Every structure is written in C-alpha cells, then in structure tokens.
Amino acid sequence: MNKIVSSATDAASVNSAQANAPATPAKPKSGAFAHLVYVLRENPVTGLAFGMFALLIFAAIFGPMIVPYDPLATDAASVLQPPSFAHWFGTDNLGRDVFSRVVVATRLDLVISVAAVALSFVIGSFLGAIAGYRGGWTDITLNRVLDTIMAFPLFVLAMGVVAALGNSVANIIYATAIINIPFYARLVRAEVNIRRNAGFTLAAKLSGNSDARILAFHIFPNALPPMMVQVSLNLGWAILNAAGLSFIGLGVRPPTPEWGIMVAEGANFIVSGEWWLALFPGLSLMIAVLTFNLMGDGLRDIVDPRRRT
C-alpha cells in the first residue's frame, strides 16, 4: 500500500514539474514552411532580421512607384533644405529630394549585392567541391590560385578590376564576385574534404551513385549551413564594397541614386552644417548591412538538415 501511495506521489510530482516548465516552440512534424515558422519563432532576432529584409525588398521593388518626388528632378528653389514635412530627409545641393533618392537607391544596391554574392557562391562552391572531392593536383592548383587572389588587399583588387574594365554596374558585380570567390571555395573544399570518406558517402557509392550525384545530393547539403552564414556576411560586405567604390569615384556614376555616391556628395557639406546629406544614406547603408549580418544564424538553421529531424 505504501508503495502504491509513493508511486502516485512521484507521478504527481513529475506532472507538476512538467506543468511548471517553461513553454518551448513545438517542433513541426514536416514541411519546409512549417520548419521556417519554427525557426522564426525560436529566434526572435532572426524574425526581426527577416522582417527588415522584407522591408528592403519592398523598397527595392516598389520604391520608385511610391516615392513623393522624382529622384533625378532638380529644383533651384529648394536647394539644401533641412528635413521637413515636405522633404522628410531634406534636399541636396541641386534641390533633389534626399528621401526619394535613398529609397530608389535600395534597388541598385541590393541588385549589386545579391548578384555578386550569387555569382561568387556558384563559382566558389563548384571549384571548392571539385577540389575537395578529387584532391591531388586539382586541390593543390586551386589553393595556389586562391592564395594569389587573397594575397592582394581585396578592396584594392576590386578597385583594379573596375579601373581596368570600366566603372559600370556589371563590372562592379564582377569585381565584387571575384574577391568573394575564395571564401566559398575554401569553405566548401574543407566541408567536402571532411565528408568525402564519411559513412553515408561510402554507402552512396556502394549504391551505384555517380560522383556528381553524391556531391550534389549527399555531401553539398551538409555543407550548406556554414555557407549560409558566409552568404549573409558577404551580402553586407558586397554592399559596403559597392558603396566604397562609388565613394572614391569608381562605382556607379552620378546622377544615379546610390548610397555610396550620396555619402560622398554629402561629405562635402558636413562642415557647412548640411548633415542630412550624408547621414540618411549612411544610415540606410548601416541598416542594410546589419540586416544581412543578423540573418546568418537564421539561414543556417533553415537549411541545416539536422534541424529538420
């Protein structure tokens, strides 16, 4: 009888402890969308970052249609006006509305950043996967080429590429992609090199899978999580690189709205008191870079196969 009472007491204690335990997000059973929702609920900072990224995408797509003024239209009667209800971010030395130019510039900066990172991701992943899987002279040759690229200061290398090819948007993308390729190639090479002799890789070979299929469907998905963190960092670096090239005169040419150009033009007026010309484009640049940096952990959790089990 005492044993029965003791067992009932223990069961009641366990139920009470479970009832008082803090609630945690329920792990979804299956489905990519359910997994995405779970990741966003588990990490509120990731949800905030994706919300900020959605706002940037909205500004890039619909910005030119919703801005109150033409970003290229000049107005001699409204030169260098401070922020007001008529001009939220003030006007520049040609009377152009700074708010309209900042919003419209979002599209160009995001296009440069995303295109450059996508290009470097594809090329770097392919080269790194081949080198890590094959090894031997293929691996040695790739490493020497990457060492040569990284021997140069990366921004100086980008300056040289743009100066040689011309300061167009396409050449800025190519230059930014070139300096980012070594990051992905080295990362994928290391991940593939670790997993090429793993048990699941050997099992895939015994099952008759080709090397290309093993790389694409068995090894590469396991290398994606650390790469997603690198992607988020490179998106921020790519925007800073494009803005830096524009700041020194090797990027997008005026009067095209671009954050780097606007900061460079506004820097000439800071001493005379027109602080808003450089502040708002620089603040937009900072928010974009911060957004991409905060997205890293979330992207890693979304693509990580171990987080789906």
From TrEMBL:
UniProtKB keywords: Cell membrane, Membrane, Peptide transport, Protein transport, Transmembrane, Transmembrane helix, Transport
InterPro entries in alphabetical order: BP-dependent_transpt_permease, MetI-like, MetI-like_sf, OppC_N
GO CC, alphabetical: plasma membrane
Any coiled-coil regions, as ranges: none
Domain of life (superkingdom): Bacteria
Principal cellular location given in the protein's record: membrane
Subcellular location: Cell membrane
GO BP terms: peptide transport; protein transport; transmembrane transport
Membrane topology recorded in Swiss-Prot or TrEMBL: Multi-pass membrane protein
TM ranges: 45-67, 110-133, 145-166, 235-255, 275-296
Domain ABC transmembrane type-1: 106-296
Family to which this protein belongs: Belongs to the binding-protein-dependent transport system permease family.
Protein name according to UniProt: Peptide ABC transporter permease
Species whose genome carries this gene: Thalassospira profundimaris
Lineage: Bacteria, Pseudomonadati, Pseudomonadota, Alphaproteobacteria, Rhodospirillales
